[in-house]
Design goal:
This protein is α/β, with parallel strands linked by helices. The chain has 21 helices and twelve strands. The chain has four domains: 121 residues, Response regulator (Rossmann fold, 3-Layer(aba) Sandwich); 139 residues, 3-Layer(aba) Sandwich (Rossmann fold), CATH 3.40.50; 88 residues, Helicase, Ruva Protein, domain 3 (Orthogonal Bundle); 62 residues, Arc Repressor Mutant, subunit A (Orthogonal Bundle), CATH 1.10.10. The strands form three sheets. Strands 2-1-3-4-5 form a five-stranded parallel β-sheet, sandwiched between helices. Strands 7-8-9-6-10 form a five-stranded parallel β-sheet, sandwiched between helices.
Length: 439
């Protein structure tokens, strides 16, 4: 069996080398990082089996780095915090974020080896890495969603929850967020069991979560079975979480959805925002998804440049989070350059477009050659600023250009940025320079 890989992060060279020598003598592979920056780089290129992380470092403290990894879906290995002057509050904070344990310096040899061994056993029992609600973003709308889920989770009785949102919006991440660590999870696909054996389902996931991705897919008899299951779920301490992208009140009015089941589910319901409602989270989401895929597939680390991230943020995502996830995996596997660029993003986003339409669009966009006579004629009628100095003429032209396209784009800055081929930060600076007010 291959030896386990341990990353030791400490700004004191003596401690780093001492820990390396001890752990190598025990048969472990050890990598050293002298600060948070080196630790970030090491984690991006490879997932260690365990990290020994010092809290007090000059460039960035260990708690902050631990939070960064947690927020970027990179906290997929046990992290043992180390400190020469730690406090109980610090240890509690680190554990709350996701640290496995806390060691005080000077670290006793037996305590070190016992903690490392326990952390590695814990790592082996952990499920495979996966997206979580923390990865969904930090925008106000996502933060509010997490706060509401936290409020639901602390309830004494595991009430059923209805999650409403477009397909692929991340409803499963919300359902997983409500799951207690180590408790059972069942995503129900065989709806016949709701009719034939609803109580057997509850017995099999006692204390856990039953998740149904699309409640509107259930037939009338299955809806009745689910209603019975919900009525008995408290006894088994099972929480039923259902998702839907359908208009359930409309289905109920058309007698296609059971009235009593709708009442039971709508008592605690939340709307999961579509990706277009929190576009500011897309760059962080891209990095989280990419890091997760790199870890699972064992591929070399690939970075997205700024233009590529902006292109993904400004794109349309009718398939929501699921479509974004598929696009990121495609880009990682098929892009050829050292970095993933805007051209790579355009290639993947438009690969299913009709080739004939693409050719026609290219022909339309291709500028027609303009004769000198045409310029003179146009100048007399439409281009009065040709007699101005170049700088003034350029400013006047750009002012007319942006005002024209702002009207076409209905003052949508994302659309205007796409039309002009500019990054949004550059676009805002340009509009301010030209004295154009943004409505």
């Amino acid at each position: 069996m291959a030896s386990k890989h341990i990353l030791v992060v400490d700004d004191e060279i003596g401690i780093r080398e001492l820990l390396r020598d001890i752990l190598q003598d025990e048969g472990y592979q050890v990598q050293l990082a002298e600060n948070a920056a080196a630790a970030r780089a090491a984690r991006l290129h490879e997932r260690p089996d365990i990290v020994l992380l010092d809290i007090w470092m000059p460039d960035c403290d260990g708690i902050t780095l631990l939070k960064e990894w947690a927020n970027s879906s990179l906290l997929t290995m046990p992290v043992v915090m180390m400190s020469g002057h730690g406090t109980i509050d610090t240890a509690v904070e680190a554990t709350r974020i996701g640290a496995f344990d806390f060691l005080e310096k000077p670290i006793a040899l037996q305590k070190l080896l016992k903690t490392v061994s326990a952390a590695l056993k814990h790592s082996e029992q952990q499920p495979k890495s996966e997206m979580n609600l923390t990865s969904l973003g930090k925008s106000p709308i996502v933060t509010a969603l997490k706060d509401r889920l936290d409020k639901i989770a602390v309830g004494i009785s595991p009430t059923p929850v209805l999650l409403i949102g477009p397909k692929g919006c991340g409803a499963e991440l919300c359902a997983r967020y409500l799951q207690d660590s180590g408790s059972p999870w069942l995503q129900l696909t065989d709806f016949n069991k709701l009719v034939d054996m609803p109580l057997d389902i509850l017995e099999s996931i006692r204390g856990g979560i039953l998740y149904i991705p699309e409640i509107a897919d259930l037939k009338k008899a299955e809806q009745k079975g689910l209603l019975l299951l919900i009525a008995k779920s408290e006894k088994y301490h099972v929480r039923v979480v259902c998702g839907t992208s359908e208009n359930l009140p409309k289905l109920q009015a058309e007698s296609l959805f059971d009235h009593n089941l709708f009442q039971a589910l709508s008592a605690v319901s939340l709307r999961v925002p579509a990706l277009e409602e929190h576009r500011e989270d897309i760059p962080d989401l891209v990095v989280a998804i990419a890091n997760l895929q790199l870890e699972l597939a064992g591929l070399e680390y690939r970075e997205f440049d700024v233009a590529a991230l902006n292109g993904l943020r400004n794109a349309n995502w009718p398939g929501d989070l699921a479509q974004l996830d598929a696009a990121i995996r495609n880009l990682i596997h098929t892009s050829l350059g050292e970095k993933i660029t805007l051209d790579d993003v355009k290639r993947v986003l438009h690969q299913f477009d009709d080739p004939e339409v693409q050719v026609k669009t290219a022909e339309i966009k291709k500028p027609k050659p303009v004769q000198v006579e045409e310029i003179k004629t146009s100048a007399a009628v439409d281009l009065p600023f040709l007699d101005q100095p170049l700088r003034e003429a350029r400013d006047d032209f750009e002012r007319i250009y942006f005002q024209h396209h702002m009207k076409d784009a209905s003052n949508n800055m994302s659309k205007l940025a796409d039309i002009a081929g500019l990054e949004r930060t550059h676009l805002y600076r340009k509009l301010k320079q030209l004295g154009i007010k943004i409505k």
